[in-house]
Amino acid sequence: MGGSVAMAVLRAAPQRVAGLFLVDTRAVADNDVQRANRLTVADRAGREGTARWLAESTLPNLLGSPTHERRPEVVASVRVPVRAGTTWSSTST
Questions:
Q1: Degrees (nearest 5) of the Cα angle 68, 51, 32?
Q2: Is the pTM of this model over 0.85?
Q3: Looking at residues 62-85, what average pLDDT do you find?
Q4: How many CB atoms lie within 10 A of CB 78?
Q5: Contact at 8 Å (CB) between 51 and 83?
Q6: What CA–CA distances, in Å, run from 16 to 6, 27, 43, 54?
Q7: How confident is the model at residue 84 (pLDDT cuts 50, 70, 90)?
Q8: Angle, to 10 degrees, between the axis of helix 54-62 and the axis of helix 32-48?
Q9: Ranges of H-type helices in the chain
Q10: C-alpha–C-alpha distance, residues 47 and 86, integer Å
Q11: How far is CA 13 from CA 1, 4, 26, 49, in A?
Q12: What per-residue confidence (pLDDT) applies to 16?
């Protein structure tokens, strides 16, 4: 979804964007199932916040099963910023 937001900003206010680096995003729009899921997550986040459920519901899709099975330290390190609601860029320095 970040890529879609970035591209919308670029279309709406190109003068405000000096550069854009898109990572792990797609050039095509979500299909109906993906869109419905995204809207469901956004609605729940708006109603409940994200602290209690987002990390656990998102982690299975963020990391592959071999990582879950063999690298619990990686799973734990990803869980922390997701629970905190931080972005990857803010945790990488």
A1: 70
A2: no
A3: 84
A4: 19
A5: yes
A6: 11, 22, 29, 31
A7: low
A8: 150
A9: 2-12, 32-48, 54-62, 65-70, 72-84, 88-91
A10: 19
A11: 18, 14, 21, 29
A12: 92
Distance CA 68, CA 59 (A): 9
- Which tokens hold the place of 79? 């869980």
Positive or negative: CA dihedral 57, 91, 69, 65: positive
pLDDT in tens, 5-59: 888 899 999 999 998 888 777 777 889 998 899 899 889 989 988 877 887 888 8
**Assigned token pair, 3:** 């890529």
Q: What is the residue whose two structure tokens read 């199932």?
A: 33
